[in-house]
Amino acid sequence: MPAARQRGFRGWRRRRPFWGGLCVLLGGCETLLSERANISVVLHAGAESLAGYLLPAVVAICGLLIIFNPMHRLFYSVISVLCSLGMWVTSNLGGFVVGMLLGLVGSSLAFGWLPDQEPRRRRRGKAGAARA
Asked: How far is the C-alpha of 83 from the C-alpha of 74, rounded, in Å?
């Protein structure tokens, strides 16, 4: 039974930009957690403002939406790139740079994901057979 569940999850994951959405989600959550850091660690570049909590929350929500609604991944990835760049100013240098980088990399992965493309392993096999 666990093997069937694993195959089912693998099939579900392949039909969406899972890794990009997961990176965006982790970037937003890491930045939100950096807002709750000890006061001696927190940089005061806007940590007390509403935008310091709002932008990471939007990035985390965009990560979930990229995973569960892949049809609109282009819109969500553009929004998460803009919010990730905005986190540099509002949220402790973007969650001490880690959260911002996770958001940017995940957004790029989600933006570049192509749903109708065959896995690379199969394309190489067909191209090799065509050349021979």
From this structure: 14
Calculate the alpha carbon distances from 108 to 31, 51, 130 in Å. 18, 23, 32
Distance of CA 111 to the CA centre of its chain: 10
Q: At what angle do helices 73-90 and 18-35 cross, to 10 degrees?
A: 20
Max CA-CA distance within the chain?
66
User: How far is 95 from 84, CA to CA, in rounded Å?
Assistant: 10
Per-residue pLDDT of the chain (132 residues; tens, 9 = 90+): 688 888 888 888 888 999 999 999 999 999 988 877 665 555 554 445 677 889 999 999 999 999 999 999 999 999 999 999 998 888 877 778 999 999 999 999 999 998 877 766 655 556 555 565
Judged by DSSP in three states, 17 sits in coil
